[in-house]
Structure formats: C-alpha cells, structure tokens
Amino acid sequence: MSTTTSSPSSVDQGPWFRLSAEQEEVRKLARDFSDKEITPQVAEHHDKDGEFPTAIVKKAWEIGLMNCILPEEYGGLEMGALEECLIAEELAHGCMGISLSIMANNLGIVPVKLAGTDAQKKKYLAPLMEAPLHCAYGLTEPEVGSDPGSLATTCVKKGDKYILNGVKRWITGAGVADWYVIFATSDPSKKHRGINAFIVEKDHPGVSLGKKEDMMGQRASYTCDINLDDAEIPAENLLGEEGTGFYTAMKTFQYTRPAIAAGAVGVAQNALDHSLRYSLERQTFGTYIANHQAVQFMLADMHRDIEAGRLLTWQCAWMCDQGIQNNLEVAVAKVFTSDRAMQIATDAVQIFGGYGYSREYPVEKLMRDVKVTQIYEGTSQVQKIVIGRAILRDMAKKMGLDPKVVG
C-alpha cells in the first residue's frame, strides 16, 4: 500500500491513499480469473456436488494465484499479506469455497516459513511451485477448538522418531493434501509450553483420513479429519525447537487471518452487487424497490460496512508486511468483517424476499458460505476476548497499573 507525499490541499489532484500499480495488477489478475473461471454456474455445481475444484485450482496455480506467499529462494513470488488479501477477496467474490481450495495452502506454508529449517523448506515448500500440490494445517481437535493450549494429541520421542496419537478435526484441504503441519503436546500439564509442531506426510505410517465433511457452506473445500494412530514422524520433521509449537501456531494466525477477513469482504461485496442489481429490477407498489427508503438504508449500511471492513483488513495485512505487531488489529478486522458479512448476506436474502430463500437465486449460498468465517481461525467471540484484553491492558499501563491485572 502506498501514499503520496503531497499536502492535504492537493487532495483534489488525485487520491492520497491507494494501492501500488503492482498491487492493482495483482487485484485485476485475481478479479479477471474469478470472473472467467469461477462463474455462477461453476460455483453452483461445486456447491451442489461438493466436488473439489481440481481443474480450477490447477489454473490458479499456473498463473501464480496459488502459493503466492512462497519465498523467492524456493521458487515463489513472495507476495505479502496485503497482496494475498487482494487475491482472497476477488476469488471469494466468485465463490468462497473455491477460493479456500486455492488459498488454503498458505495456512500450511506460513508455519514452515516461520519455524522451518532451510532443509525443511527445500523439501516441502519448493515442490509446491513445481506442481499444484496441497498442504494443510492441523490444530483443531474434536474437543479442542478455541483453546489450543489444551491439545489432546500427544507426541512422544522414541529414538529418531516422534510417535503421534490423536485426531485433528475440521482440517481444511486435508483430503487432498500431501503433507500437514500438525500440533501435538509432549506433556498436557505444561499447557501451551508443551506443544510441538511437526511436518507430517500423508504417507507416514499411522496417518489416515476421515470422511469428507458434508458442510452447510464452502462445500467445494475438502475438509476432513486427520487420524494419528501411533504415527511415526521423523525427528527431523519437528518444526522449530521443542515447546515452541504454540507460539508458531499463534504467529501463523497473525499472517493468515487477514486473508480470512478479505474473503468475508469478497462475499459481502458479492451480496451487495446482487442486491443492487435486483433492487433495480424488482418492482413493488409501482416502482423499483431501490426507490423504497427501507431498501436504500439496507444497501447503504452494506456498502458502509464493506468499505470499513476492507480498510481494516488492508491495515492489518500492511502491518504484517511491515513486521509490526498486529494482534489487536487482525482481531478487529476478522471479527468485524465476518460478523458484518454475515449480516450483509442475511440482508441480501431479505432484499430478495421469497426468492432469496430459494436455491435458484444466488444469495442464499452466500449466506451459507460466509457463516463459517465467524468460526474458523478463531471464533468471533475469541477475537472479542483478544480485543478486550488488549485494550484493557493498554489502559492499565496508562494508569500506572500492572497490565497483568487483566487475565
């Protein structure tokens, strides 16, 4: 993101705040791909059948929209979090499930970028640029979602291997992935200090998959369990030092949550686009429904929240790219965009009336697709906890209090 250095008085000569020319090119590439390849008919097909969009993913990989954050030294384009958000928004505008199938690799890539050795990066990251391969991120468990410090999956070192036992649930892309980043604990009593991260290959002994989940929305994504039954993982596949897995997991979310927020913005924009067109086609009481103040107010609220959410998302992504701590900002962006996108999709259904409730019209799918953004990668309630604690601790410091008074 760039700004001009001109004074406020010159604002009438052009925008003072804008994306760079290169970022606009990335945005246009993603938009054109979404419009051409993720058509309403394609999105409808994958929503109905739940078929993984292999052909579309391959095309996205071929033009550089997949694995966009891979470092140049391993063959990647090394785009930043902001460019990733631009891609995520445009692809999600076409279909969030298909977008997730294209973008989900980034969630597996980030922890390897953060904590991996050069040998691990060469072995697991470089091949992602040689073929449209997949990876996944395994943190959530059947009884552990929002409390990753209480993992039940265990790891025990035996010689030159770690033995992992447990189940990872709701793992996006697991069904097509060649390897996963798996988090497990060496000692549950240590809570987050006992957690380790591993690169686990699908063919490692003791690794198997559960059934594909039949989900309400984002049905093009292949989400399933990863079962670890005395899974034998080479010790060299430990990511980082022992006991640092929790910090790797949390740091990963600082890089990946902006793209989730961007995806929610993309769905919300699609809902608004459909609502605007429909309001200029549908007539009641002798005029287009666009002329009814009640509808105009809804459209205005939708536009307002999309604009605000997009800027919040770009801000936290920019901070990420600048190496600035963004825990608070990314939590604000994710909870705002996901909650408002859900409301916007709901309002779109309302504007369409009875037609909005029918699967023959597009907006009910948007409502189903965007719901999970309030749940995965940290629920809206968890984001509010993060925000509440952060602003209270900041005030405690200003008041001369020990910030630890806030639990």
Summarize the structure in words.
The protein has 407 residues and is α+β, with helices and mostly antiparallel strands. Helix content is 48%, strand content 15%. The chain is built from 12 helices and 12 strands. A hairpin with a 2-residue loop joins strand 4 (154-158) and strand 5 (161-172). Helix 8 packs parallel to helix 10. It is globular and about 80 Å long.
CATH architectural category of the largest domain? Up-down Bundle
| CATH homologous superfamily descriptor of the largest domain | Butyryl-CoA Dehydrogenase, subunit A, domain 3
H/E series, N to C? EEHHHHHHHEEEEEEEEHEEHHHH
User: What is the spatial order of strands in the main beta sheet?
Assistant: 3-6-7-10
The shape is globular
> Beta-sheet strand percentage?
5-15%
Helix-strand blueprint:
Elements: E1 2-3, E2 17-18, H1 21-37, H2 40-49, H3 54-62, H4 81-94, H5 96-103, H6 105-115, H7 118-124, E3 135-138, E4 154-158, E5 161-172, E6 179-185, E7 195-201, E8 207-209, E9 223-234, E10 238-239, H8 245-279, E11 283-284, E12 287-288, H9 293-321, H10 327-352, H11 363-371, H12 380-398
Parallel strand pairs: 3-6
Antiparallel strand pairs: 1-2, 4-5, 5-9, 6-7, 7-10, 8-9, 11-12
Short description:
Helix content is 48%, strand content 15%.
